[in-house]
Amino acid sequence: MGVILISFSSCFELDNWEEPNCVWKGTVIDSYTNEPLLSSQNDWQIRIWERSWTGLEGGASNFQDLRIKQDGTYQNTKLFAGTYDMLPYNGPFWPMDTIKNLELKKALEHNFTVTPYIQIVDYKAELISKDAKYYVKMSFKVKAPLLEKDGKILPRLYELRPFLSLTPYCGNGADSSIGIPEYNDYVRIRPANNSQNSWATLISNGPGDNTTPQYEFGLMQVKNGYTYYVRAGASVDDTYRKHVYSPIVKIEVPNN
Question: Which pTM was predicted?
Answer without folding.
Answer: 0.87
